[in-house]
Amino acid sequence: MKALLLAGGKGTRLKPLTNNMPKPMVPILGEPLLKRTILNLRENGINEIIISICYEPIQINSYFGNGENLGIKIKYVQEDIPLGTGGAIKNAQQYIDDTFIVLNSDIVSDINLSALIEHHINKKGIASIALTKVDDPTQYGVVNLSDGYITAFKEKPKPDQVTSNLINAGIYVFDPEIFNYIPSNQIVSIEKDIYPLLIKKDLKIAGYHGSYYWMDIGTPEKYMQVHKDIFDGKYLITNQLIYSPVNGNILQGDNVKIRPSAKIIKPVYIGNNVEIGSKTIIGPYSVIGDNVKINSGSRIVNSIVWDNVVIGKSANINHTIIGSNCKIGNTTEICDSVFVLDAAESVAI
Questions:
Q1: Which of 54, 43, 104, 44 shows the shortest CA–CA distance to 77?
Q2: How does DSSP classify residue 22?
Q3: Which of 117, 179, 239, 287 has the most CB atoms within 10 Å of its CB?
Q4: Which residues of 54-84 are buried (b: 16+ CB within 10 A; e: fewer)?
Q5: CA distance 70 to 199
Q6: Among 2, 64, 3, 1, which Cα is nearest to 34's?
């Protein structure tokens, strides 16, 4: 079976982290989310992947290439302009001739994809949609379910329009027949345009929901929440290839230099080639990327620091995301913010 990954979006709500980076390439514990998704697909027996790209496509293409390094076959379909989720699916038709799986590439989930595929086969519908429960469904696509089949959709309903807390999780299984209902070379939403059309035509769309972790990283708050959930064991990374626990909830890479007077408060993740100065405090709930230097007396709590960052002396970083290649000055205090190299100033979380 083949998988199609929808990776063309700009990640507007995640800005400024996505100013120069496609959202699927945002790191989750030091590895791009898209890589973790691909590895999960491989573990579920899927060995051919099509990636739909549009925004900053070179970053994705140059990182993954043909997939040989990950032991999987990768092909790309590129949109000159965003065609929407439905248009992106139609754009990949040339590579698909059998039942296939589709995933939005901003999703963090440990859903059992094999079980989803089996559910689709058993339900014998044209499509199956993974569903998840949320407390506030107004930011998502809400569905109504009857006898295991979806009977209605409401995209981002107002509070008084909410009839269910089951939402579309952005993970689908389709039969190739789906292409007959998606127009070519048009901007089309699979959620707003195609699913209602299928229901109108009395075609079966199965809903699949179970007990699994799910989060979209659409905002800085959710991006930080995913890392907290990983540290708390709510979401288990099964394809962590490089790092291994060295002290309880402390994950540490290679060539890490920590001064004896530094204090590491778990849970913490530390990448490769990191230097942590004297009398520093790192953690709890902190992620330090590769090639980071943290000078003496600094404190980094409940924060995520990307690669190639220098933290000056006696800096205080709290509940903040620091983008790659930043230099934080001595005695600087940054709290509740996103701070990236090309932004005029930090953005409040």
A1: 54
A2: -
A3: 287
A4: bbbbebbeeebeebeebebebebbebeeebb
A5: 38
A6: 64
* Nearby residues of 83 by Cβ (< 8 Å), 6 or more positions away: 90, 91, 186, 187, 188
Orientation of helix 33-43 relative to helix 57-64, angle to 10°: 50
Model pTM greater than 0.85? yes
Identify the residue whose tokens are 């998606």. 182
Which residues of the chain are in CATH 2.160.10.10 domains?
A: 244-348
Catalytic machinery residues:
156
C-alpha of 229 from chain center: 14
What are the structure tokens assigned to 183, written together? 């127009």
Produce one character per residue of 4-34: b if its CB has 16 or more CB atoms within 10 Å, e if not.
Answer: bbbbbbebebbbbbbeebbbbbbbbbbbbbb
Name the phi and psi angles at 166, rounded to 5.
-85, 125
- pLDDT per residue of the chain (349 residues) written in tens, 0 to 9: 999 999 998 888 899 999 989 999 999 998 999 999 999 899 889 999 999 999 989 999 999 999 999 999 999 999 988 899 999 999 999 999 999 999 999 999 999 999 999 999 999 999 999 999 888 888 777 888 889 999 988 877 788 878 888 888 999 999 999 999 999 989 999 999 999 999 999 999 999 988 899 999 989 999 999 999 998 888 877 555 444 455 557 788 899 999 999 999 999 999 999 999 999 999 999 999 999 999 999 999 999 999 999 999 999 999 999 999 999 999 999 999 999 987 655 678 8
**CATH class for domain 244-348?**
mainly beta
Report the distance separating Cα 4 and Cα 20, nearest Å.
23
Domain 2-219: homologous superfamily in CATH:
Spore Coat Polysaccharide Biosynthesis Protein SpsA; Chain A (3.90.550.10)
Measured between its terminal Cα atoms, the distance across the chain in Å is 40
- Cα within 13 Å of Cα(86), Cβ side: 21
Tokens of 50: 């099509």
Radius of gyration of the chain from its Cα atoms, rounded to whole angstroms: 21
